[in-house]
């Protein structure tokens, strides 16, 4: 209930601030639970992605530092967030989302690149997908990466892709993980081209907004 309430508030706020969001290929989102992955390009792209996949509810991973603030911790916990120690990720980083995917009606949003300014994919999504037996669904955000540009009604586009099949990859060794990462990155690149053939995201060392 809290997740739905917050999502409704966010929907109104983003409509007032920007009001120029477009969601494409929503019909590709599967029934049941899944792992929705995307390259992390802004701090607000998770909100747009969750809005585009509504009415599905989600859990997600958040850096442990955010849970130190009691008010923020309350909000994150009730938004189905799991704390992640990026320096020392423990088994719970995989176990908890797998449990939620298998035993609840909530899917999972992940940004396998880890940070907004990284293009390197991580293997966590692969392990969670394999253990939970839930599909990986790619998505991308194209739109303003500066908060001030949201107020200019710069178009925001969220596009979803076909679920990525990894059933043929038998071993999750170095080569297997590399193949999954390759397929996910290929899906991201394809979705970006489908929105805008000339689009290129330029990662920044710092975001001062």
From TrEMBL:
Output the CDD domains linked to this UniProt entry.
LPLAT_AGPAT-like
Residues annotated as signal peptide: 1-23
Sorted alphabetically, the keyword list is: Acyltransferase, Signal, Transferase
Protein's UniProt keywords contain Acyltransferase: yes
Q: Name one Pfam family in it.
A: Acyltransferase
Domain Phospholipid/glycerol acyltransferase per the UniProt entry, residue ranges: 34-144
For this protein, the record's InterPro entries field holds: Plipid/glycerol_acylTrfase
Task: Identify the domain of life.
Answer: Bacteria
User: Under which name does UniProt file this protein?
Assistant: 1-acyl-sn-glycerol-3-phosphate acyltransferase
Give the originating organism.
Enterococcus xiangfangensis
